[in-house]
Amino acid sequence: MEIGIYTLGDLVPNPQTGKIICASERLKEIIEAAKLADEAGLDVFGVGEHHRLDYAVSAPPVVLSAISQVTRRIKLASTTTVLGTVDPVRLYEDFATLDLVSSGRAEVIAGRGAFIESFSLFGYDLDDYDGLFEENIDLFLKLNANEKVTWNGQFRTPLVEAEIAPRPFQKRIPFWVGVGGSPESSERAGKFGTGLTMAILGGDPKRFKPLVDVYRQTAMESGHTLEDLKVAVTGHAFIGETTQQAKDDYYPYYANYREFFSREQGREKMSRAEFDQLSGPDTALFVGSPQQIIEKILSQYELFGHQRYIAQMDIGGIPFKKVAESIELLATKVAPVVRRETKKSMMASNQL
C-alpha cells in the first residue's frame, strides 16, 4: 500500500495564540512538509485547490512544481482539482508540464469541490455542476490518451485535430475521481475506469463500503479490468508516541478547524468528549499512537482492499513542528508495518 500526506493549506488562527501565519509562510511550510515526507520515504504528497482568503493554495500545479524541485521520488498529486471550473486542456498542459519537470511524478485527483466560489469566479453556471464535471472528465481522459484530439461537447468549443502539448513524462497522467459520499460519483469513476479516492473524514468507515462496491461493479460492467482499478482513502490524522498524547496535542487544533469552517452553520465548539468519541478505535478519524493508526489502516484495508492511504494533518493552525513529528512517525513507525502486512495479505490472496 502507498502511504502519503496531503494539505489544503488552510489559514486558520492558532487557538493558543490567536495568530494566523501569512500565505507566504504557509506555502513554505507546505514545501518543507513535502521535502520531509520525501526524505522519510512516504509515497504521495497532495495539495488541494481552494479560491478563498482562508486558504493559501489556489494553484496546485504551481505549488507542486515548486515541490518537485526539492524532492526526488514522492508522487505529486492534486487533492483535489475542482474539475468543473477548470478548462481540461489547460489542466492537462499544466500537469503534463509538472510531470516533465518532476520526471514522471504528477497525478490528478479531480473532485466537484466542497465550496462553490470557483463557479462565479471563472464564469461557470452552478446549474451545470454535474454536467461540467462529467464532460471535463471525458475530455481530460481523451487528452491523456491522444496527441491529437477531435472532440465536441456542450460546455466549451470543439477541438478538431488539436495538438495537445506537451506530452507527459509518463505514458499517461494517473487520474483519480475524488468522492465524499456520493454513489453517483463512485459510479462515474467506475464508468470511466479512473481511480477512486474517498474522503472519509469521520464516523464509521463501513458506510463507504457501498461506494467501493458500486465503483468496482460499474467498472467491470463498463469493460475495465479489476487489476486496473485503484482505490485510495484520505482523511484527517495525527500521530503521537501514545494515543493519549496524540489526542491531547491534536484536539485544540481539530476543534478549532471544525469550528472555523462550520461557523456559518452556527455549530457549537466541539467538546473534548465528542472528539474522544470521534477518534475512537472503530472510527475514521486517525488520531492515536503508531500502533492504533496501523490497526485502523489495516482494518479499513480488510473492508476496502484499497491501494493507498493519504493523511491530512496540518489543520486548524497547528504548529509545523507538531506536523513534522507526526509525519516522521507515519513514515518510520506506521508505513513499514502497513506495507508489509498488506503485501502479505495480497500474496495470500493471489495464492488462493
TrEMBL record:
It comes from the Bacteria. It holds the Pfam family Bac_luciferase. The keyword Chloroplast does not apply. InterPro entries: Bact_Lucif_Oxidored, Luciferase-like_dom, Luciferase-like_sf. Keywords: Monooxygenase, Oxidoreductase. The keyword Acetylation does not apply. Residues 1-303 form the Luciferase-like domain. SUPFAM superfamilies: Bacterial luciferase-like. This is LLM class flavin-dependent oxidoreductase. It comes from Bacillus xiapuensis. The lineage of its organism: Bacteria, Bacillati, Bacillota, Bacilli, Bacillales.
